[in-house]
């Protein structure tokens, strides 16, 4: 395995050197990297001292993803581990984090507004976003700027809605694939006078590769832009619904390679039924020549019911929350600086109920395990400044102070959920209580223009997350209260990015991070704070236009994520695990792509792409005694215009028909796998209505 890592690292290192032996570079202008996520401003991000990535609309159309992990393979340091159907777990400059609060380490957003309320994350929350028809996806890696608070610790994934087109865009697409897969997408977009409208909707049916699995999904995004004399207003309504028959893990060492059991579903009764709805209006007006006021009220509603098939006693959970929020900030744009000062306010009403239908044991009884509501209030103030004087230097920094309060109300009997026969009840309901947290974050960076279109930067930043409600109030084994502290992550990084004219783009980031007050479940199943972890790595992105018709790209990282304190972690046994790799943290993963534009041959716009996806081996539990060996996959994508109105696409996934696991795990004494699908071909037809 070390040999394969060495070869891969060498290959990534040599690629830019080999690229330099390609054709001579032209003198055409360098493209501008436009980013909106970092500071809620449209800005050139080349010199921004921050690690960021953009998946643009062209790439989104080519990938035409069924699951968002297909897109995030184009972001160095990011891995969305796919469960069954539309389920996922996030790794962003981190291990894949699980548990009640693991998802709180990442801020997932649509147009900058969190998909779920702070404190009420869900590990699968990315299925709430309409990434299938997004305008672009922007990713910030590592602790974010002061404009984002709790949860923006390991990074931000921001799915940005497609803006209205300047001319009529009225199109329908239909695609089909294996296992009864069919998806329809519709887009209508136009601008008339001061008003622009964009309507995107998609409907999907997937019969499922495994027995008694599959899903039906619907998403819609409606956007209206108004360009007025005094006010510019953008309003977006975004909704998603999923009805999924979930296939559970298959068990046994390397079971994903066994043709007799890889299509089996040990949990045919499992399901997941979430829906989400978000609405916001962003209104901006000029106060004077330098200052602009932006006010963004928003509403959010989520509900999900699912069978917890990954637990042997299989309870059912229903959770929901509704939020109302307001973001307001003033942008100051002077000659040598851009300064943002603002406040964020949000109120959330949430509930959770867990019940068990079938008897299992006295310690996991039939009936209500948890039934509570939480009213949450978040208030924050921040300032972020970016300066560029008449020199090669640029400074960027900010600070944020955030207050979070939870008002918890237990609707079941206080204390144990078990009867007198239980000797170690799994579920404990704390009495009504209030909890509040005040935390701050800061970031400071400097960039230096080494040469035209070549920049180096240095950055330090602190991120944090408040404890999630489930960590505070969903207790076990007689724990009467959980006095938890916010997690904190300190990051230091050095980066280089730039262009060799418009043919070769590189982006390199080296980082070191320490996380303190990590919330974990100890060997006694108590939710406690105090663990430490250490993270360091190198992230690399390369894009090279080899010739007029050929291009190549690499997005990869090598990293180490380890336990850095002496703790007895649940699943770690009685042995101290300090220095061990955190489970599900491969040292190397990434993708490489070779693109071919064969428009000249076809006579119409046409492209092809061959993609290699590499996943290194990783440990499956804290003791580092069980391992998944990793995999390599190849995918082929082809798109072509057949007429002025009709275009087609072909995608072949897992081209070499590799046996692999989308996710590997070790729990309850068994190897467990979510199986990757075998080779599959997907065909798409797109038709453009109206005048061309």
Question: What does this molecule look like?
Answer:
With 692 residues, the chain is mainly beta. It has one domain: TonB-dependent receptor, beta-barrel domain (Maltoporin, Chain A, Beta Barrel). It is built from five helices and 38 strands. The strands form seven sheets. The chain has a 22-stranded antiparallel barrel. The protein is globular, with a radius of gyration of 25 Å.
Biggest sheet layout: 22 strands, antiparallel, barrel
Mean pLDDT: 92
Helical percent range? under 10%
How many runs of DSSP E, i.e. beta strands? 38
β-strand percent reads: over 45%
Pfam family, one: TonB_dep_Rec_b-barrel
Signal peptide: 1-26
Subcellular location: Cell outer membrane
Main location: membrane
Pick out its properties:
mainly beta, transmembrane beta strand, single chain, 38 strands, disordered N terminus, Maltoporin, Chain A, 22-stranded antiparallel β-barrel, 692 residues, 5 helices, 55% strand
Write a compact overview of the structure shown.
By secondary structure, the chain is mainly beta. The protein contains five helices and 38 strands.
Topology (SSEs and partners):
Layout: H1 2-19, E1 34-35, E2 43-44, E3 51-55, H2 57-63, H3 69-72, E4 78-82, E5 88-92, E6 106-110, E7 113-114, E8 134-141, E9 155-161, E10 169-177, E11 181-192, E12 195-206, E13 214-227, E14 232-245, E15 250-251, E16 271-286, E17 291-307, E18 316-333, E19 337-356, E20 367-388, E21 393-410, E22 415-416, E23 428-429, E24 433-451, E25 454-465, H4 469-473, E26 487-500, E27 504-521, E28 527-545, E29 550-563, E30 588-597, H5 599-602, E31 606-615, E32 618-619, E33 627-628, E34 631-641, E35 646-653, E36 661-667, E37 670-675, E38 680-689
Parallel strand pairs: 6-9
Antiparallel strand pairs: 1-2, 3-8, 4-5, 6-7, 8-9, 10-11, 10-38, 11-12, 12-13, 13-14, 14-16, 15-37, 16-17, 17-18, 18-19, 19-20, 20-21, 21-24, 22-23, 24-25, 25-26, 26-27, 27-28, 28-29, 29-30, 30-31, 31-34, 32-33, 34-35, 35-38, 36-37
